[in-house]
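Most newcomers find our protein records easier to grasp once they have seen one. Nothing more is needed to start thinking about how sequence determines fold. Here is such a record, shown just as it appears in the course material:
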Amino acid sequence: MSDREPIEAAPMCFACGVDNPVGLKIRFTIEDGRCTGQFTPDANHVGFENTVHGGIIYSALDDVMANVLYLQDMKAHTARCEIRYRKALEVGQTINLSGWIANERRRLVILKGEARTADEDVLIADCEASFMLA
C-alpha cells in the first residue's frame, strides 16, 4: 500500500463529506485494518415515524466499508452489496459502524460491515459487499 499515491479527498461525499450541507458527516478512522465511525440520526433521516430510513443505514454501512480501502489509499467502487436489517433504528440512537476486509481476489475486494447501537451493542444491520479496485 505504501507504493500508492494518496487519492483525492471527497468533501462532498454524502456519508463522510465535510462540505456536504445535507450529508451525514461521519468521521472514519482505521486501525489494524478495521474502519470505524459513529453516527447519530436526526429527524431528517426518518423513514416512518421515529424510525430511521433503511437507505440512511445502508449509506453509512457502504461508506464504512469503502473507507477501509479509501483510508489506505485504495480507490474502489461498490459492485454489489447485500444488507440485512436486524432491528429498527430510532432517531437519536447512536450507532457504531465497523468495516473490514473479508477476502481479496485480484481487483475484487469482499468487505463486511456492521452497525451496532452505541449504548447496548445491539446489532442493527450487517452487510457484505464486493468492491472493485480502480
User: Anything to note?
Assistant: The mean pLDDT is 94. Residues 29-133 form a domain with the Thiol Ester Dehydrase; Chain A fold (CATH 3.10.129.10). The longest helix spans residues 54-70.
